[in-house]
Amino acid sequence: MIKELKVYPAIICxxxxxxxxxxxxxxxxxxxxxxVADSQNHAIGIISxxxxxxKVIAEGKNPELLKAKDVMNAPVESxxxxxxxxxxxxxxxxxxxxxxxxxxxGKIKGVVDYKSVMERIVKKITGENNGA
Length: 132
Prior knowledge:
The chain is built from five helices and six strands; from the N terminus they run βαββααβαββα. It is of the alpha/beta class. The protein is elongated.
C-alpha cells in the first residue's frame, strides 16, 4: 500500500496566488510542478514549468496579473494513501511522469516517486520484506 512508502511533502499554492509567487515557490523548492489546493487542502489543479512557458511567456501575458487559477491544469489525478503501489505505477505510466500526488480522504498528503514505487514492487515480486 502507498502508506507503506515514504511520502514526500507536496509543494502547494492556492487559486488566488499570483503566478510570480507560484514561480518563486517552485524555484525555492527546486520543483518542476506545484499543486493548486483549495481552502480545505483538496488538490484542484497542477502547474508545471512548461505551463509558464506555454500559457504565460509564449502568449505575452503579464505574470503579475495572472493567478494560479488562470494557468493551472485541472483536474489533477491523484492516488489515495490506501491504494496499492501497482495502482500508483499504472497512474505514473499513463501520465508519463515520475511522481504521483497522494491524498488521504481527498486531502493532499504528499507525493510518491517512481523509485520508491518500483522498489516496493520489486520487493513484493522477490519476496523481500525489509521495510520501505
